[in-house]
C-alpha cells in the first residue's frame, strides 16, 4: 500500500470507530438472565413521576407489564446513552415475597436530536411462576432491596373493555405556558371530535392556565401528570437546551401509550397547538371506522401536518367576540391561512393508533409495532397546526386561505362560551378580577 494511502487509512480508522459508537449506543439490548435470591422483598414504593437511580445516569418514569410476545416488564426511562451502565431488575414475586434478579436489556431510542440523553426502554423478562407486582432497578445484582426504590408494575391484567373510545396524549406543557384561549378551543374541539380523556404532562404554566386546567380536571376531561424534568436533567448549557429536547417529548409519548394500553380503544398523538381535523367525517369515530373498513389490518394512522400562520389574521372582525378578546391566547378561528403543500420535503405527521399495536414510538413515527400503518390522504383529514410563522417559512403572500376549521365553528363557539360562563360562575372572584384587569390594559 503506498505511504499516503496507508496514512489516510490510519487516520480514518479512529473516525469510523467513533462514528460506529455514536450511531450504535454501547448498551445494546441483551438477553436477560434471571437468578433466584434468598432475600425478601423490601424497598419504598415510588409515587413520583420521575425517579433518579443512584450511581447511574438513568431516570425511571413508569413500569408496565407487556405480554404481547413474552412476559416482560418494560420501564419507560430517560438515560444518558454514553454513560448508562448495566442494570438489573429485582422482581418481587407475589407468591412468596422473595426476590428474583435478572439482567436488563437497555433499548435506547434512536431519536435523540444530537443530545447526550434520550428515551429508552429498560426491559426484563419476568421469571416463571413469579407474577411480580413490584420491581426495583439497580446497577448491581448484589445488595438489599430495602435500600432500593420499588416501582409498581402497571397493566398486569389486560382488559378487553375500555373506559374511552379516544384519548389524547399531548406533548409536554412546557415552562410558563399561557396560551389560554387556544388551549380552551383545542380542548373543546377534541371533545367535539370524540375525545373523552386528555393526558397532559405538565412542567409549569401561568396562574390563569392553572385555573383552566383545574376546571377540566374537575370536569373529568383532563388528567395531569407532573413532569418536573428540569429538576432532574440539566440541559441549560451553551450547547443544549430543553427546547432542543422538547422537554423529553419522546419519553412522555411512550409512557402515555402504555398508560392507556388497556384504558382506551384509540390514542391520539399531537401537540397542544394541533388538531387532527376530519374533512369528510363529523368525528374521529366515523373516520377511523371508515378507514379500517377500507384498510383491514391497519391500526396506525398518520396525518399530514398543515401549518396555519398565527401571524396572519382575518381582515374582518368575524369570530372576534368581546369575551374572547380579553382571554389571552390565539383564536384559531381567525387564522385560516396555511402554507402551500411542499413537494419533496419530509412532511411532519401525527398519529391516531391502537395502542395495543404499538411497542415503541417516536414523535413522528412508530419505531416498533404489530400493525399495518396507513398514510391518510389529506383529502380525508389533516393535522391542523396553528403556530407562529417563522422567517424561513413560505412568504405570507403565498399562504392559502383554508377555512376547514369553520366546519365546526357553531359547536366550537357554543362550547367555548359555555366554558367561559362556567368559569365565571365557579371562580367569580379570581377569574372575573383577572379578566377585568386584562380589559383595563387593552
TrEMBL record:
Its main location: membrane. One of its GO terms (cellular component) is membrane. Pfam families: Glyco_transf_92 (PF01697). Keywords: Glycosyltransferase, Membrane, Signal, Transferase, Transmembrane, Transmembrane helix. This is Glycosyltransferase family 92 protein. It comes from Python bivittatus (Burmese python). InterPro entries: Glyco_transf_92. It is found in: Membrane. Belongs to the glycosyltransferase 92 family. It comes from the Eukaryota. PANTHER family: GLYCOSYLTRANSFERASE FAMILY 92 PROTEIN (PTHR21461:SF69). It is an enzyme of class 2 (transferase). GO terms for molecular function: glycosyltransferase activity. Residues 1-19 form the signal peptide. Its EC number is 2.4.1.-. It is a single-pass membrane protein.
